[in-house]
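Page 47, continued from p. 46.
Same chain as before, 394 aa.
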Amino acid sequence: MKIKLGVIFGGETVEHEVSIISALQAIKSIDKDKYDVVPIYISKDRTWYYGHILLDINTYKDIENTKKYLKEVTLYKKGDKFFLQQTTGLFRKDLTDLDVILPVVHGNNVEDGTLAGYLDTIGIPYVSSRVLGSALGQDKVVMKQVMASCDIPIVEYTWFYDNEYLENKDEILKRIKKIGYPVVVKPATLGSSVGITYVKSEKDVRSAIEDAISYDVKVVVEKAVENLVEVNASVLGNYEIQKVSPIEEVMGEDEILSYQDKYLSGSKTKGHGSKGMASTNRIIPARISDKLTKDIQETAIKVFKVLNLSSVCRIDFLIDSKTNKFYVNEPNTIPGSLSFYLWKEDGLEYKELLNEMINSCIKEYKNRARKTRSFESNILQNFNGSKGTKGLKK
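Result:
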């Protein structure tokens, strides 16, 4: 009997289209002998849709017109089973049952723990980091604070909220100047290099901050690593077991790897659309020493464990090629293209990677289900509401 696998993608985030590309790549590679795929699309207005035409990339070229052929749905639990239910029409109708969820989402209000929390509330197993890991992986400020507390190497940085900048620009600009230019200005909770600016001098920093603020309420400003080499390693597993992929050296055309480098470079060839992170220019294995490779891979696993990550993640690093010092840039809890291209270099085909991810999720779900969740006693049986908590019998 096949496993009913719900693949959730989309969302209101600026990474909406990237999520669609990543999800359809995964769906194409899923072992159809083991899984029945149920596509679940979250539109930019946060409505959930179901329909098999969601499997066709052409559907999204005019999604507003296509919505009339889709069913609006919600996910809920009935007894020991989980169902996708149609929410429109005279009667609510169960469209299909589901066993496991594979979220292939990027950005705020989905990848940041929001979706994980919703799925936890329902109780269905899902193939990604849980709420804490997802939230830590999305917020570039909090993740740095946690990593610094565990002696994980990070660049010097400062951060602030949009209102703090508007109320006290001079103080914040002094803090940035103290770090020293060049710097990188980033929205704190976005991904896919959206809203990120490399700033060489003080005269350009204000416009970079204003751009970041247009995307996010929180901004982080980092000391730029000069003589920069960007490398990434993927980690697969959970809190018990972790595997680390070969390291890639990512080749960008800008000072930092941009959205253009990541997602639009593949569309330059006539007749070929972007393949997401899989289309980025890269060298595998990275052109670094064996010792540096080992140190970075060990640090990737440490980040994975410290930040409570699960499933497949990608940890991004910055190297100063003159000093050979490296820094953790950030983790990606649901990386573009699920980093399948890195695991392929290790002999693990995408279909096998997805199998490992789903199997690990189910195993961890069963392990957690065996933990004590509540006590048999019910203190409310002896509760006298008129006396508050003092009304409990001793």
